[in-house]
Structures are given as C-alpha cells and as structure tokens.
C-alpha cells in the first residue's frame, strides 16, 4: 500500500493532522532514519495538535470577542495600576476552574474591553469556553425572550460557558426585570462557572446603581465572596495609541 492510499484512508477518517505529518515525513528524509515508534508518536502528536488547534478556533468563534486581544498584548505601562503578579496569576485561568469571578473597572478608554477579551482569549487557549456580551444588550435580549417564551433556552445557553464576559456594566439604567435577570445569571453561575464584569462604574457605586436593595445585596454578595478585582487607571489608551496630534 503506497502513501497515497494511506492518506486517502486517513482523510476518510478525518485524521487531517496525521495527513500533514505523513506528508512532512515524505518530504524530509531524516524521518526515515527514526524508529517506527518515534515516527508513529510524531504522527499522533501532530493529530493531537491539529485537534487542539481546531478546538481553540471553535471556542474563539463561539466566544464572539469584541477584540482579538491576547495576553501578550496587555500593556503594563506605569499609571495603569496593573499588578503584574496578579495578572500573571489570573492568566493561568485557575480562577475560572474554581468558578470564581473577575471585576474590571476603570474610566472610559482605560482598556477594560481589551483586557476582558484578553482573558476570554486566554480561557480559549486553556480549552475553556467563553462568551462576550454587552450587559445592556444581553438584558434587552432576555426581555424579548421573556415575551416569546424562550427565556429558558437563553438561560441554558448562557450556563454552558465556563466564562461569561459582561462588558459595559453600569453604562445604561436597568429595568426591574433586567435587575432580576442579572441576578439570575450570576446566581446560576455561583461556584460552577465564572463571570467577568467590566465597566466604568466603581464597585462602591453598584448598590445605588442597581437601586433595588434586595437584588443589589444579592448580586454584591455573590460577586464579592468569589471575585478578583482589577481597577484600571491612567490616560485613555485610545489617546495614547493615537499619538500626538500636530
């Protein structure tokens, strides 16, 4: 049986990583000198790497991150109030495995969305599922789902993600239904999945923003007890990256 027949059979089985490895072996005479077990292990590792890459890309597509940010792109310039050791620990994604939460706050332009998406991308690298949504848009979608009877499906869909990123929290007023929906989202994820809340509103102002003592107490209780906090500061990153104007 020649190599083409082997490749045809591997293609039928969907083993595309193995195909690439075998083609690479055929083009590199050095592989012919290796023992069969070593060559076979290389082929298996190529298949595993191909599948990991496919899974990573699939998770990223499902995450719908607003920005294709990466951990390596995080800007630690002075004034941003970023603790390198804290960020390094968060980038291990151990907090997601534990079902803990992350709160990112800071003024407009300080890079909250970029950092939130970087954490989403890092979760994908670790094989964890993520989803990015703007808080107000999600609550509007849930309000419509209440009307058409699909709210159960929406909640079930949200619960499947290891990391749920709620961006622009506190940017727009919430309805009473929205406040309850937000509580339901956070409550359903306590100790089982992680929520990342990003917004301009300082944490100390959340209670007055929610403006419903019982719901506010419940949301803060669930977030405070299992959350890490990053308070971004400094000049607008958009302004800094744009450079000086003439």
Write the topology of this structure.
Blueprint: H1 3-12, H2 16-27, H3 36-63, H4 84-90, H5 94-97, E1 101-105, H6 112-125, E2 130-134, H7 135-148, H8 151-159, E3 163-167, H9 176-189, E4 194-199, H10 206-210, H11 213-224, E5 227-231, H12 237-242
Parallel strand pairs: 1-4, 1-5, 2-3, 3-4
Question: Taking strands numbered 1, 2, ... along the chain, how are they ordered across the largest sheet?
Answer: 2-3-4-1-5
Report the CATH C-level class of the largest domain: Alpha Beta
CATH architecture of the largest domain: 3-Layer(aba) Sandwich
The CATH homologous superfamily of the largest domain is termed P-loop containing nucleotide triphosphate hydrolases
Helix content class: 40-55%
- Low-confidence stretches are none
Shape: elongated
How many domains would you count in the coordinates? Answer: 2
Rg (C-alpha, Å): 23 Å
End-to-end gap: 70 Å
What's the number of extended β-strand segments?
Answer: 5
User: CATH fold name of the largest domain, please?
Assistant: Rossmann fold
Beta-strand share of residues: 5-15%
What is the H/E order?
HHHHHEHEHHEHEHHEH
Mean pLDDT: 86
SSE class: alpha/beta
